[in-house]
Amino acid sequence: MIRGMLRVLVAMLLAGSWTWPPEARAGGPPEPVEGAVTIRVATFNLNDVRTDDLLDPMNPRLRRLAQTIQRLRPNVILLTEIAYDMPGAPGVDDDAQPGQNARRFAESFLAAAQAPGLRALDMAAFMAPVNTGIPSGHDLDLNGKVVMEYPTPPPPRADGTRPPPSEEARAYGNDCHGFGTFPGQYGMALLVDRRLEIVAGGVRTFRLMPWDFVPGGLLPSRADGSPWFTAQAQREVRLSSKSHWDVPVRLPNGAEVHFLCSHPTPPVFDGPENRNGRRNHDEIRFWADYIENASYIVDDQNNPGGLDKRAHFVILGDLNADPEKGDSFKNPIATALFTSRRLHADQPPTSDLEIQGLSPSDTALFKLRVDYVLPSRTLGIVRSGVWRHAPVDPLTGRPAPFPSDHFPVWMEIMVP
Fold it and tell me: CA-based diameter of the chain, in Å?
C-alpha cells in the first residue's frame, strides 16, 4: 500500500512539472491510475541541423527549434535530421569523440531558456552512428561511377537554412549506404528527461543488417527483371537508410518503455526501379516484424530476434509515409504497420491551429502525415497533438518563421 502511494506521488510530481501546451488543456486531467506514470513523448524533424550550426550557441534557427521544444516540454523526444558528428565529417577534428551533437543541442540550446517565460530543459542525450553519407563502395544508382569523396558543403543562408545539394553532392549521396552529402548528415538523437534513465545495457541498434535478410524484401529490379544491385552489393546494401534503434528507458515507477526510433528514406528521388520507395516500405515493415519478434532480425552485436511480446514500446520518428496519400510504395503505414494488433494506430494526433492547405493531421508543410508517435496497446493515450504554433524571435519577441518544414508530434502516454 505504501509503495503504491509513493508511486502515485512520483507520477504526480513528474506530471506537475510540465507547462501544458494549448492542445493539452482541453478536457482536464486524466483519472489517476495507481502506480502509473504519465510522460510526454515527441518526435521532431529539425531539417538538416549540422555540426557548425551547433557550435554557435546564438544560431537563430536552432534557438527557435529549442524554443519550440521548451514550449512542448517533452520527457522523451526523438530528433531527426541532426548530423552525427564523426571524424571525416565537415567541421569535425580527426581526433574528436564522435556523437556529441545531441549533447551540444541539449546543453547549448535546451539548457538555456530561449524566450521570456520559458524554462530550461535538463535532458540526457543518446546518439549512435548512422548510414547516411557513408560510402558503400558500389555504384548503387547505376550511373556508371562509384563516388567515394564528397564535395565541401556550402555555408548556410542568412536565415540558417541550407541550399539544395549540388549534382556532385547528390552523386556522392546516391552511392552511400544511406543518402547523405557528407558522413553523418540527417542523423538522429534521442533526448530523455534526466529524471528518467536510459538503460544503456539494453540498447539495440540495427544499422548494419543487410536488406536481403528481410524475407520477401522488396529489393529493386532492372527493366529486364534482373536484380538492380550486383551480387556483392546485394549482400552488403543495408536495410536502414539511417539506423533503427531500440532504446529502453526506465521510469520512476520502475517500468521500462522501449523507444523504437528510425527515419526511413523518402520514397522518392529515384527512377522507375523505385528503390527508395521499396526501401521505405521495408524500413517501416521492419518495426512490424520487430514487435512480433521475427527470427530473421539480427542487431549490430549479432544478437538475433525482435522485441519481447510483453514489452511496452513506442514507435517514434519521421517515417516518410502517409497512410492515406503521397508517394509511398504499397502503403506500408496502413498495410504493414497499422495492421499490428500490438499497436495503438486509431488515434492520430491533430493540430488545433489551422494552416491553409493542411489537414489537421498533417505533420509537414508538404501536406502529409509523416511523423509518428505510436505506442503499444499496453500503454494508455491521454492526449496528443501536432504543434504548429510559431516561436518568437529571441531578440525582438515578435512572431518568427517556424524553424523546420516539419511540426513536432507529441503524445502524453500513461505507463503502468
Answer: 70
Domain boundary assignment for the chain: 40-415
Query: What is the Cα–Cα distance from 364 to 70, expressed in whole angstroms?
Result: 20
Q: How far is CA 5 from CA 10, 14, 46, 304, in A?
A: 9, 14, 40, 40
The DSSP 8-state label assigned to residue 270 in this structure reads S
Instruction: Assign a CATH topology to domain 40-415.
Output: Deoxyribonuclease I; Chain A (3.60.10)
> What DSSP letter does each residue of 384-398 carry, written as one string?
EEE-----B-TTT-S
Per-10-residue mean pLDDT, the chain, length 416:
38 36 38 81 98 95 97 98 97 95 98 96 98 98 97 89 94 98 98 98 98 98 97 97 98 97 97 97 98 98 97 98 97 97 95 96 98 98 97 88 97 97
| Residue whose entry in the numeric block shows the C-alpha cell 529502453 | 248
Whole-number Å distance between alpha carbons of 334 and 352: 24
Tell me the residue type at 168: E
**Residue 123 CA to its chain's centroid (Å):** 17
With beta carbons less than 8 A apart as the criterion, state whether 260 and 245 touch.
yes
Nine cell digits for residue 93 = 577534428
Cα–Cα distance measured from residue 200 to residue 192, given in angstroms and rounded to the nearest whole number: 12
* Cβ-based neighbours of 80, under 8 Å, separated by 6 or more: 43, 44, 45, 46, 186, 188, 242, 263, 317, 318
Q: Based on C-alpha coordinates, what's the Rg of the chain?
A: 21
Global confidence as pTM: 0.92
Place of cell 536502414: 240
Torsion of CA 85, 91, 93, 94, to 10 degrees: 70
CA-angle at 57, arms to 264 and 91, nearest 5°: 60
Pick from 259, 256, 209: nearest CA to 235:
209
User: How many helices and strands in the chain, by DSSP H and E?
Assistant: 8, 12
Three-state secondary structure call for residue 253: coil
